[in-house]
Design goal:
The structure is a homodimer of 523-residue chains.
Chain A: H1 21-28, E1 62-63, H2 66-71, H3 78-85, E2 95-97, H4 102-115, E3 118-122, E4 140-144, E5 151-155, E6 160-164, H5 169-176, E7 181-182, H6 195-201, E8 218-225, E9 228-231, H7 244-248, E10 257-264, E11 266-267, E12 271-278, H8 282-293, E13 301-305, H9 307-312, E14 321-328, H10 334-346, E15 350-353, H11 360-381, E16 384-390, E17 393-394, H12 395-417, E18 422-431, E19 434-444, H13 450-467, H14 483-489, H15 492-505
Parallel strand pairs in A: 2-4, 3-4
Antiparallel strand pairs in A: 1-2, 5-6, 6-10, 7-11, 8-9, 8-10, 12-14, 12-15, 13-14, 13-18, 16-19, 17-19, 18-19
Helix pairs in contact in A: 1-11, 3-11, 3-13, 8-10, 12-13, 13-14
Amino acid sequence: MTSTATRSWWGWGSTDQALPDEECVALAGMVPGLPDRPRAVPDVRDLVLPPSRVGPPPSLPVTTDPAARAAHAYGKAYRDVVRALSGDLRGAPDAVAHPRGESDVVDLLDWAGDAGVVVVPFGGGSSVVGGVEYRGERPWVSLDLGALDQVLEIDRTSRAARIQAGAFGPALEAQLRPHDLTLRHFPQSFEFSTLGGWLATRAGGHYATLHTHIDDLVESMRVVTPAGTSESWRLPGSGAGPSPDRLFLGSEGTLGVITEAWMRLQDRPRSKASASATFPDMTAAIAAVRAIAQAALHPANCRLLDPGEAALSGASGGQPVLVLGVESAAVPVEGRLAELTDLARAHGGVVAVADGGRDSAADAWRSTFLRMPYVRDGMARMSAVVETFETACTWDRVEELYAAVRSEVGAAVREVTGAEGLVNCRFTHVYPDGAAPYFTVVAAGRPGSEVAMWDDVKTAASEVLGRLGATITHHHAVGRDHRPGYDRQRPEPFALALRGAKAALDPAGILNPGVLLDELPAR
Amino acid sequence: MTSTATRSWWGWGSTDQALPDEECVALAGMVPGLPDRPRAVPDVRDLVLPPSRVGPPPSLPVTTDPAARAAHAYGKAYRDVVRALSGDLRGAPDAVAHPRGESDVVDLLDWAGDAGVVVVPFGGGSSVVGGVEYRGERPWVSLDLGALDQVLEIDRTSRAARIQAGAFGPALEAQLRPHDLTLRHFPQSFEFSTLGGWLATRAGGHYATLHTHIDDLVESMRVVTPAGTSESWRLPGSGAGPSPDRLFLGSEGTLGVITEAWMRLQDRPRSKASASATFPDMTAAIAAVRAIAQAALHPANCRLLDPGEAALSGASGGQPVLVLGVESAAVPVEGRLAELTDLARAHGGVVAVADGGRDSAADAWRSTFLRMPYVRDGMARMSAVVETFETACTWDRVEELYAAVRSEVGAAVREVTGAEGLVNCRFTHVYPDGAAPYFTVVAAGRPGSEVAMWDDVKTAASEVLGRLGATITHHHAVGRDHRPGYDRQRPEPFALALRGAKAALDPAGILNPGVLLDELPAR
């Protein structure tokens, strides 16, 4: 388990990784018009929390400690970071629960149901969509699963493990490593997010193709609901009715609390190869990526950086760059890499094959990738407005979407901030029938107005995605921030069905109300 | 659309493919103790149907024609065929509806909801689990989607097509072929089943690995429910809440009527290669298949025949045979086949690589495969008891399951029939974490007692599957015949959620009651 001692209460990840002030100032040079020094980080001990409104029985592992409440007030969206930096903790939970095992989860839900207390499951707290922050009127408890962090059982024959939901990425991999196995699910939040969070939000992981979401890696799940505990059978495949797991995957804590899952594992890869290709323009690059995605070659990495993104990460001087990677635990992969680079060349790519499995563009990209959230926080302290949003659409609309987002979100940035901003893009995952573009927006904010400005940019982004039929989220989940876009996208009969399912499992409506579905009036 | 003129009303497929009497007699030699001549096939015009209890408005495309009602009375399970051969049509639908378009489906559901008439969606009618046969007390209509058989739209760029649910396999492929595209979903029932049926039952298809079920080939779905029409967005991937499509996939007509779907297509394969390998015993063969399934090589075919199955299909003299096939539209596949056969050899396999893409074991198998249901019907006419059932479990239990099923179902056959029967097995689909064994049982029945004997064998099979945690169905669906096993397997909270979803979408409870969920008392 990642030590919580060094976890930042206001920003991303570890406090010792946060950008020093001088680096914040240097970064701010990227966007003209920002203040000349970063906003100070308040001492959490100085901040005022509203009085706690809950009184759980002493037998339950619930605390009203202010530091715990502050650390569970928000996720890690830009708007969360800015609100925390401003010292606004009005919406903090009334208490934080730290169940020591599944029976505590059952007891907590029983108590909360009787007491009319809202329960919001909390894994690593890395939500960037308002997924762990209740915004209603009832008293609420943040249910932190962090103590349920064990790999409980390993089936080497079937390559699967039973893992508790509160296990963070590094802890989970550390427990699998002695068995020469790996889950190989590496979202950007890997260090600071948990298996349960990945499952509840349908997280996107390591693989750029094929098993892009964690959904496919699930063999069975165990979920505590107010109406009882659901455990699906361990099955490699089944056709017995609608998949129970697929209802809980992406349910974001509204139907139950995921406590453990049997996960499909991989052998650790023995051979890896990577290459990068530069393209004259995005049209050629997109055609190459589409050809690769439709060739059923399933590269582990297939990440297209647009000119702005490539320049920022140092991967190219301003041309689109495609980073390709293949890996296998069973067979050599050089032949497969050659098949991929042949396709890139056939579409105008200039290919650089990495020496000895290392590739400078890929390396440059990876270190930038893991640093990005800290940079975001440093920029937030400089009052820059930073937003990342991701989507997916079918290939027939990919180029139009790319152009429309850059144009319309760029226009929104100009209108909101009065200046040009950056709107960069990379494709994080690709499919035979489409791609998942991920956009980064950086603009000059005005101190005190950052959240309102961010909200306006977000609204413009959601509007163009919805108009072009692109999903409101490919792997960041819905939470509360994406509700308008999600409501537009979701078929109304499915909303009815989901409400019906929720009413059956959570009749008191205590589970993460406001996420996915509107909060119903209290009974 | 497959011509209905030649469709058998009592048995599988086309009447012109049914086994002649002398072939039935010859086949019966396989099982000692059967009668010396086949039961006659009754003339459907001689059979008595109960009076129809419905009177839909003349504007609706509903018929009470006896031949139509007889042809929609049952699916094509063994027990269906035997009951039809015995002339028992007491449970036939009161009427058959043939909607001409989606608006007819809407109008039919509106009328049925008001009139309290049960509606059972009917695609090709090839259900082998009692999926299209209402067994309750209310009047009912079989809703035959066969006229909705068009490919409506093709997106060549994204390789996807919008296809109506009533399209049979051959008609669907014929409409895609001019575009050099294929769905490549080839269940055994391919000729006699429809896209809508495949989706409603999560059918298993062509691919032995990776995209084993049709689920993964779905881009979006359109479903008419009594509460409105649900249409999901066309997306290559999404993380926006639980997947709407995954709730309707496998819903077997209980939540709505699937009218069309955008399906992900493939380029037609340009290179194919196949091989077969014989093994000294099932332990070695299973180890080889597991190694292949866990190597992420994704062969299109990976079908293991046990000694009995291999002997019956002429693929070997009595050793386990593994049939391997690879295919690609983009790259040569010989290297991939070699990787697979290397793994087979490493586990004791004796490999025969097919010349010029043709393999005699594979060919022998394929023709036997498509003939099997006709053989089953011929055997049924000879009063043999024939059952096929399929399952899936994780690798740690595969050998135990194989042995236990053969032993316990074999014992049940002896007890029920007083003689030895055949219990053969093949693995139809394999996964990194497990396999999907498919069993065929053939035993000597007693004329007049076949259905009761079949039910006893089925019960024994379901019992051993459930005890060992193997799914009650990998791709045949639940229907009514698999309900006890399904109820045991399904987590109770998921059953509550599904009932909640159904109550929201089908408040009058008219949609295929008894499948997946118990029929609720009429309002």
